[in-house]
Amino acid sequence: MLEPSPTEQYHQQRTRSHLARVRWMNGFSQSDLGAAAGVSRRAIAAYERGEYKPRLLTATKLARALGLDDPRVLFPELLEEASP
Q1: Predicted local distance difference test score (pLDDT) of residue 79
Q2: SS in 3 state form for the chain?
Q3: Which CATH code fits 6-82?
Q4: Is the whole model's pTM more than 0.85, yes or no?
Q5: Which residue, 22, 69, 73, is CA-closest to 44?
Q6: What is the block-wise mean pLDDT of the chain (84 residues), using blocks of 10 residues?
Q7: What is the per-residue pLDDT for 23?
């Protein structure tokens, strides 16, 4: 299995800490956020640990549930994936 690049490692670390922090600051449990965004609590936990990246639609639903307009605030790698 290939090791993640330094950029991927950075985004994984940022995602796992940032998503959990924003969720906590908004008073959501993992279950609450999952219900609001239409995903499972286990998926939220996996995103927070950096094990998986959500698809754009899921990231958008998560961001909106947390009162954010742009999912790239939570998942900056979405910007890089959209770049040519």
Answers
A1: 66
A2: CCCCCHHHHHHHHHHHHHHHHHHHHCCCCHHHHHHHHCCCHHHHHHHHHCCCCCCHHHHHHHHHHCCCCCHHHCCCHHHHHHCC
A3: 1.10.260.40
A4: no
A5: 22
A6: 66 69 94 97 93 91 95 80 52
A7: 93
Question: Which residue type, as a one-letter code, is found at position 71?
Answer: P
* Rounded CA separation 53/34 (Å): 14
pLDDT at 80: 62
Length of the chain: 84
CB 40 within 8 A of CB 31: no
Which among 52, 11, 45 is positioned nearest to 28, based on CA atoms? 45
